[in-house]
């Protein structure tokens, strides 16, 4: 078993959780934010967060097809143009050192859909899930936490 970061850095976890509480008040649909968190968690190989966000989406009554196809969203016809833009942005911000990085074209396209404040908020969402993934993956977060987190969504809704 690896270190229990929830316990060992509890002050920091509480601060991150406060940011999550702020994110919950963003004007974007909660389902969109969960889909983005799921996609980023897939990219980062975070089984804990993939499981958590899949369960959260199901609790939100998101269609199974839309949950199941997030990993292949570019080929799936079940996502809106807004969701596709959010996925493109989330992937670029997660893969900063990728081939294109965050291109001016992608930036402009995302601002056109979300506005300047919205793209900043979306970037915080992506940054936060990347932070949670970077804790959950190396410390192999035990999936037993998920049940308690679903009951207390502000505790860790990465």
Give a short summary of the structure:
The protein is an all-alpha fold.
Task: Detail the topology: elements first, then pairings.
Blueprint (H helix, E strand, L loop, with lengths): L4 H4 L1 H15 L5 H14 L3 H13 L4 H5 L12 H14 L9 H33 L8 H7 L7
Instruction: Give the distance, in angstroms, between the N- and C-terminal Cα atoms.
Output: 22 Å
Name the structural class.
mainly alpha
State which percent range the strand residues make up: under 5%
Unreliable residue runs:
153-158
Beta-strand segment tally: 0
Q: Give the rounded overall mean pLDDT.
A: 91
Cα radius of gyration in angstroms:
15 Å
- Put simply, the count of helices is 8
Biggest β-sheet: count, sense, barrel?
none
What gross morphology would you assign?
globular
Order of helices and strands: HHHHHHHH
Fraction of residues in H or I helices: 55-70%
Walk me through this protein's architecture:
The structure is a single chain. With 158 residues, the chain is mostly helical. Helices cover 66% and strands 0% of the residues. It has 8 helices and no strands. Helix 3 (30-43) crosses helix 7. The two termini are 22 Å apart. Mean pLDDT is 91; it is low at 153-158.
